[in-house]
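Whiteboard transcription, Tuesday session. T.W. wrote the C-alpha cells on the left side:
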C-alpha cells in the first residue's frame, strides 16, 4: 500500500496525492458501510488497481474543521477584505476561536489593500490584533503587494483559507498557485457581501505545501465549551486574571471587574469585549440546551 493525503472527493471518487502523483480512488466497501466522512487533508493508505486505486486505511486526525471541512491543518489564513465588503470583526473573532480551539495557528490576511484609504480608527483596530500576537499581512490581489509575506509561511504545511464570501480567497489562491483559475465573484451591491464562488473544499499544491480554497460563509457557531473557558480565547484578558473581586468572574455583570476597568481605560479593544459578551451568552445558552 501507498500512503498519501486526500486532496478532494468528487462524484463518488477521491483524489489522493502520493508518490508525487495524484491517484483516483474509490472506497473499500467497509468504509461505505460505516458511512464514514472523508475530509481533504485526511492521511490515507491506498492500494493501486488496474483502473483506480482503493482507499484501504484512514489515519486518525490530528485536528479537523467542519465549516470548512478539512483535516490535519497546520495553519489557517483568515482572509478578510479591508474594504468592499467592510471587514466583519465579529466573524473574525468567531473564526479565531474556532481555529485556535482546534489547535490551528491563525494568520490574518487583509486583502484589497490597494483600495484601502487609511483611517485612524481602522488602523488602530488592526494594530490591536497585531499586539495580541496574531500574524497579519496586508495584500493586494490586483498588484501582488504583500504576497511575499504570505508565501514563506505556506512551505511544508497544510493551510486552509477561510473567511467571508467576497473577501478574495479564490483570487488569492489563483495568485499563490501557478496555473490556478478558480472562479471568483464580485460583492453584491444590494447585500454588501460576497457571492459564493467555491462550492467544495479542495487541496492544491503550493510553495511546497498544500492549500485549501474553501466555500465562503457569513455565520459560524462557536465550538462547544464551558462558560469559564471563553476568556482563554481572548489573550488581552490574561494580564487581568485573578485581579477581579470574584474568583469566578466572567467579566460580564460582576462588580469590581478588572477586565471591565481595562476596557473603560482603553487598554482592551471595546469591540472585542462586546464580542466576548455576546459569545458568552451564546455559550451559556448552549450549556442550558445540553
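and on the right, the sequence the group agreed on:
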Amino acid at each position: 500500500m501507498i500512503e498519501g493525503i486526500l486532496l478532494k472527493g468528487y462524484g463518488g471518487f477521491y483524489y489522493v496525492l502520493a508518490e508525487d502523483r495524484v491517484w483516483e480512488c474509490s472506497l473499500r466497501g467497509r468504509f461505505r458501510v460505516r458511512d464514514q466522512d472523508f475530509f481533504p487533508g485526511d492521511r490515507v493508505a491506498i492500494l493501486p488497481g488496474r483502473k483506480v486505486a482503493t482507499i484501504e486505511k484512514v489515519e486518525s486526525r490530528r485536528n479537523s474543521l467542519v465549516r470548512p471541512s478539512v483535516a490535519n491543518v497546520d495553519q489557517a489564513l483568515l482572509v478578510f477584505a479591508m474594504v468592499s465588503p467592510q471587514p466583519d470583526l465579529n466573524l473574525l473573532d468567531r473564526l479565531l476561536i474556532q481555529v485556535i480551539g482546534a489547535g490551528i495557528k491563525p494568520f490574518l490576511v487583509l486583502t484589497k489593500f490597494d483600495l484601502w484609504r487609511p483611517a485612524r480608527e481602522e488602523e488602530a483596530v488592526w494594530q490591536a490584533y497585531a499586539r495580541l500576537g496574531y500574524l497579519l499581512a496586508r495584500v493586494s490581489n490586483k498588484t501582488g503587494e504583500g504576497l511575499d509575506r504570505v508565501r514563506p509561511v505556506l512551505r511544508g504545511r497544510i493551510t486552509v483559507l477561510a473567511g467571508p464570501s467576497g473577501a478574495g480567497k479564490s483570487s488569492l489562491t489563483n495568485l499563490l498557485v501557478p496555473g490556478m483559475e478558480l472562479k471568483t465573484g464580485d460583492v453584491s451591491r444590494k447585500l454588501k457581501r460576497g457571492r459564493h464562488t467555491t462550492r467544495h473544499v479542495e487541496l492544491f499544491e503550493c510553495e511546497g505545501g498544500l492549500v485549501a480554497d474553501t466555500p465562503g460563509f457569513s455565520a459560524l457557531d462557536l465550538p462547544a465549551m464551558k462558560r469559564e473557558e471563553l476568556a482563554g480565547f481572548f489573550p488581552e484578558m490574561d494580564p487581568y486574571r485573578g485581579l477581579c473581586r470574584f474568583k469566578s468572574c466572567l467579566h460580564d455583570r460582576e462588580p469590581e471587574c478588572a477586565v471591565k476597568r481595562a476596557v473603560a481605560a482603553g487598554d482592551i479593544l471595546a469591540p472585542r469585549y462586546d464580542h466576548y459578551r455576546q459569545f458568552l451568552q451564546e455559550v451559556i445558552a448552549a450549556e442550558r440546551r445540553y
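Someone added at the bottom: Residues 183-198 have pLDDT under 50 and may be disordered.
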